[in-house]
Amino acid sequence: MMDDDQPSIVPGRDDALGVFRGHGKEPVYCAAWAPGAGGTVATGGGDDCAFLWKASDPGAPPLALTGHTDSISSVAYSHDGALLATAAMDGRVLVWDVATGRQQCALEGPGDSIEWVQWHPRGHVVLAGSADFTCWMWNGDTGACMQVFSGHSDSVTCGTFTPDGKGLVTGSLDGSVRVWEPRSGQASLTIQHAGGMFHSAGVTALALSGDGNACLTGSEDGGAFVSHPGTGRVLGELAGAHGAKEDAGEGEEGPPGSGVEVVGFCPHLPLLATADTGGKLVLWDAATLTQRSVCMHSPGKAVVALRWHPSAPVAVTGSVDGAVRAWDCRTGACVAERRGHTEPVMDLALSPDGSRCVSASDDGTARVFSLAP
Predict the structure, then answer these.
(1) Of 35, 109, 215, 285, whose CB has the highest number of CB atoms within 10 Å?
(2) Is residue 294 part of a domain?
(3) Domain assignment of residue 299, given as a range
């Protein structure tokens, strides 16, 4: 665990291997690392621009991707690294040829800002959730709309294709999770609050297990649940780590709990992870849903990003305290801490081999760090 008294920002310290400053003074909201060896890094920011640049040489001239008219909220590479999708608060998703930086197509339709964008695990199909309560699916090669998923009654804050690519699951601020049939556009089932056994506030984070048989979700109210996306059955609650704290005394309301920001299934061990706005990353036993470790960041500083090392049981996190940290999931120990940002980390991506990461920050930079202990 980290020392509760550690400073949020360490003046003068910079562990970065390289710094990308193409966004100027505007915040960098999102980052992605291309699959495969020798790939590029993509960033998007408050300057309405995205960039493709080399992690090995952040100072080299990047490819500037212009076309959005509002801040870019999410960037994602296709499974083969050939295409990049950029999603923005202008309600549009643009698809780019990574080799040339040329815009391939514009994906139109949503009536409000895009919350997230993702590619199909094996094809050039793009999925995006919108603040207008809908989720859209397009052909990433042609720009043709393939399906619109309507049914949520608030922003679609999170979502993903199933591991086999045959279905998709979304979560919303309406407190529900919906499983969709891509061909018909209909929800095959809806998981929502009933008898106290699901979220009573907006769903903010969602992840599927590697076999697609379990869905982990987190909520604004600090709740976290595991459900089965095939049956809709709620399998259990991850209780006691993030939710409302105990009352201070009779007739006195205790301090509020922390909302869950990110969740995930460890690909190497039977563990789950949840992280919150209060600075905690909690590791859970997947079989018993009991706590294994609490990994404390700076208290009160939200953990906003969680990524898994591709070949080791290590979780890498980015925090509002400006630091990137790597945690050994077997022990809960912090095995690396990297600093250099002067403002909060907003997003995080790992290199394909897990040796490095890139972090996007409110300070207008993206920094590349080594994750070696």
Answers:
(1) 215
(2) yes
(3) 18-243+256-370
Q: Which CATH number fits the domain that encloses residue 339?
A: 2.130.10.10
Residues in the chain: 373
pLDDT computed for residue 249 by the predictor: 35
Integer Cα distance of 107 and 87 in angstroms: 9
Q: Kindly state the tokens that stand for 310.
A: 């591709």
pLDDT in tens, 327-372: 999 999 999 999 999 999 999 999 999 999 999 999 999 999 999 9
Strand partners, 369: 357
Q: Which amino acid is at 70?
A: D
Look up residue 249 and give its DSSP letter: B
- How big is the chain by its Cα radius of gyration, in Å? 20
Rounded CA separation 63/45 (Å): 14
Of the candidates 215, 217, 248, which has an alpha carbon nearest to the alpha carbon of residue 230? 215
Residue 24, Cα to own-chain centre: how many angstroms? 24
- Do the domain assignments include residue 361? yes
Check: CB of residue 34 under 8 Å from CB of residue 76. no
Return the closest-CA partner of residue 205 out of 329, 305, 85: 305
Averaged pLDDT of the chain: 93
Q: What is the mean pLDDT of residues 267-273?
A: 97
Place of tokens 């050994």: 328
How far is the C-alpha of 161 from the C-alpha of 126, rounded, in Å? 10
Q: Which two tokens stand for residue 34?
A: 């291309």
CB 162 within 8 A of CB 187: no
Q: Given phi > 0 = left and psi -120 to 50 = alpha, else beta, which region is 332?
A: left
H or E stretch including 226? Answer: strand 224-227
Contact 259, 221 (CB under 8 A): yes
Q: What is the pLDDT of residue 38?
A: 66
The band of 253, judged by pLDDT with boundaries at 50, 70 and 90, is: very low
**How far are the Cα atoms of 214, 270, 271, 335, 336 from residue 211, in angstroms, in the given order?**
8, 12, 14, 29, 30
Q: Is residue 250 part of a domain?
A: no
Average pLDDT over residues 171-187: 97
Are 336 and 357 in contact by the 8 Å Cβ rule? The answer is no
Number of domains present in the structure of the chain: 1
